[in-house]
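Q: What would this chain look like folded?
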Amino acid sequence: MECHVSTQLNGRQQQIHNLIKAFLTERLNAKLEKLPEDDPKRAALIAQFEPAAWLKDAAHRSGQIQVVTHSLKPLHPDAKGTSLFREPTSLEALEEVGSHVLGDDFEIDVVGNAAALDVYKFLKIEYDGRTLLSLALEQDADLAAALDDNLDLAHAWMQAFAGLAQPRLPLRSHTHAKQIYWLVGPDPHDDTGYHLLAPLYPTSLVHRVYQTLQDDRFSEDAKAARAARKAQQWHERPVHEYPNLAVQKLGGTKPQNISQLNSERRGDNVLLASLPPVWQSLTIKPLLAVESLFNVFGWRREVKTLMRQLCQFLESDPANNLRTRQRRDALVDALIDELIQFSAELRTLEPGWSTDPECALPPTQRAWLDPDADAEQQQHDDITDRLADDFSRWLNNRLRQPLPLGDPEYLYWRKLAGEQLRQYAWEVGHDA
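A: My prediction, written as structure tokens:
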């Protein structure tokens, strides 16, 4: 049957047809460049890439591949069973992380005969933000007209292309695949009370994770952000760290045998650390020969980081609006949290440590940090208010060098600190 496309196409049909011709011409030219001008294979190649001939062959070969979002082969390269294509928006929105979080923006994977991957590359051609595959799935009339004058033949080709997104029936698992018996009945001894689940590899989600980690680790913006952090400078991009990563290689020397996306990752599949945290005990020492706890508190790593962020933020002269106030308060609250954490660490020391003659802390701070400090002092002094005073003076002094701060800021810091310190004092049993 002779196949051709009429020149009587409307604008949209002609544009789609031109995209198809450009794709085939590019692929043909790449192959012709490798052959001498007098090579007899050139004529056969030119005939092979005639639109009608190539499309007919592509429709036939489309049965050798399948587009998927969840694939089987990553579980075992020799597994032969069902892989599935499910748009993330069609999945139930759970609280846990899953493929549903991808929304409309996701990469489709391809499994099957690697020699037929050019068919998928063809179907990835985009027109007006839509791929030819999505148009084929909708049996788009303009795509049919762009493919061939014979609309019956064009619709048959589109049906074949749309089949890439359909599950291969019957649905089946395999002895090499993972299988889980899931109890759905009341009696675990009843073998009929189970569903047999066959987990699949969420290849589209895995690829998004890989792309995100690559960007966070190796992009120019990420490198600039890490350089700024090292130089203790501000950068608009946060630095993301992924400790204890592992890489699982799939497919060996032929990652394309697993899937298209696996081939694009060169077989690398990143595994985030899932081990429990390792507890590191702190060495807590009593504050001796120190005139104020803030002389030590201010040198803690987290405190220095927060102070730098607060100072840079205030020096940037942000707009006087709700967002600015919320950002400022969040940083000051974080400093107060660090003060409470520091206090809690010191309260793990043997009670009575502040009675050491070398302890030079003021009575209020002794009473705050040491449960066995002078009981009479605790009874008569408003410890939390005095500590809030100390914190506010310390914070104003640290910020006053670059910024014109005074009593209004001091009073505001004292108000924030007093609220949180009273709450902590109540929790640990201070008589505040």
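DSSP finds 17 helices and eight strands in the chain.
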